[in-house]
Design a protein that fits this description.
The protein is of the alpha+beta class. Helix content is 24%, strand content 32%. α1 runs antiparallel to α3 and α4 packs across α5. It is globular, with a radius of gyration of 19 Å. It starts with 8 loop residues before the first helix and ends with a strand.
Amino acid sequence: MASVMEFSELKQGQIGIIVTEAAANIAAHATQGEMLLCPWGIDGSSGIDILALDNGQGIKDVGRSFEDGFSTAGTAGQGLGAMSRLSSFIQIYTTQGRGTALFARVLKDLSPIEDEDVLPLGAICLPISGESVCGDAWSMSEGKTRSIYIVADGLGHGPSAAEASREAVRIFDEFSHLSPARILAEVHGALGKTRGAAVSVAEVEHEKGLINFAGIGNVAGAILRNGKSRTMVSMNGTVGHTIGKIQQFSYPWEQNSALLLHSDGLGTRWNLDQYPGLSARHPSLIAGVLYRDFCRKRDDVTILVTRV
């Protein structure tokens, strides 16, 4: 993956070490685990996000676990320390008895950084097991006064679903200067030749402190703040085929909030109340924990979390 994205040989080697060490930790400490590699490229920056997710016993002392030589499994204890040095950004969320989620980001061109302000966004977009293409898609456009995001879930899964979601994103990229409702109308007109999709568009107006949301179908949108969530209203229908009146709703957008958009590959019964402190972590870590604990595994899944 790093080679295809034209990372330097040094960066490729660093990613290899991070992935190997993360996998070794899962094998040594957890009864069950999974690793996700999420490549991205936005506004001239690109990188690979690495998520190591497990359902083990958790880490008792996260601070000490990053110290070289500290180990609870009889190993050399170099893993997390090495991963921290080689990552542009790294963060762990762990709960005793419920497991650990590790997020590491490696940027293609920039030197390692200690601040998450380089793209405070995380996105997981995965096909159902057995498919080589994902029927979901997402995109974004950020500016000084507004930021706007889309998640599209093509009906069903496989190539035809991917065709519909990609077309929705293409129209979004062309008309991202419009309001969410008007973008949805443009997408609806373009998807008539496809099998259709569920689509949600969210626009954050920074200076006004507002988030405008328009959705058709079961792509959910929620505002996260202080461990609580507020679900935004989406209408019934299938974009490109049968929809009612497109309606746009506005909600207050406060500082320290996060936006969550997800397709129905993620169950709807998630609740951040049961994860103390998670809402303050990096958006990729939030997406990873929700994926680990609530992914249905019966459909494509997309989870987009951003602090804008």
